[in-house]
Automatic annotation (TrEMBL):
Keywords: Hydrolase. Residues 4-252 form the CN hydrolase domain. This is Amidohydrolase. PANTHER family: CARBON-NITROGEN FAMILY, PUTATIVE (AFU_ORTHOLOGUE AFUA_5G02350)-RELATED, NITRILASE C965.09-RELATED. The keyword rRNA processing does not apply. The keyword Cell wall biogenesis/degradation does not apply. InterPro entries: Aliph_Amidase/BUP (IPR050345), C-N_Hydrolase (IPR003010), C-N_Hydrolase_sf (IPR036526).
Amino acid sequence: MGPITIGAVAAHFGRDLERSLEKVLGIVEAAARDGVDLLVLPHASLGGYIGDLRDPDLTELPPPIHLDGPELTAVRSAAGPMTVCLGLTEDAGAGRRHNTAVCLTGNGILGVHRKVHQPAGEARAFAPGDRFAACDTPVGRVGMLIDYDKTFPESARTLALDGAHVLAMLSAWPASVTDRASRLPADRQSRLFDLYDAARAAENQVVVASANQTGVMGSLRFLGQAKVVGPGGETLATTRSKGGMATVSMDVDAEIARARRVLDHLTERRVDTYRSGLDVTTPGSHDPTGGVLT
């Protein structure tokens, strides 16, 4: 496929849906002018996030959005040929909401991921998703995760086994709510956020584009730290704790092939030795070498 430019965004998006949409459109349009091929925005970039993880106020939840509604139609129009991943609160009908990530271009929605793993009291506000699946895009096969999902190695491994070469990690990841540090770089969650990004990339030998919210929402103070990580776990570009876009131009397929030339983690697994509760493969799941795992 050749080199592509990947951009991962750190920015604040609040509850005002009209303002957050305007901000998303501005970022998408600027990225398109700058030649970005894959743009990853934070989770909850359309309409913001809840303000308290432990005890969310159910009377003040983020505005629910229909996937075929005017907001994503506007983003698709701005995206054109660029692949864009962004997060929102999805209206699932009957009063149910999902934390949802959408991958799209001007031609339509290419993939949808609904957050599976729910921390603390989040389950009071949102219904969980139930699957991980990669999607085909103009920049190759992409898998999406939403913040807490990346804590679990099985999430990223499932997407890598489904052929994803890029993992788009969309987060509204806050500083620690129980042991907050005076400086964000020293916060325990800041360290874990970076650790998970590097580990998920290195253990699967894929590229990670990690976006995150900044600023404050209710009692939550978001970390930023958007970055692009190579298949060896090396950080190629980062915003640190500030807002901005981490941008890298790279030949994803070539870099992954180079990383897997001697040690290929996915094909060298010993599934026969793993206890069934730890094995993320299922009969008929995709083998990244082109076969089917049985």
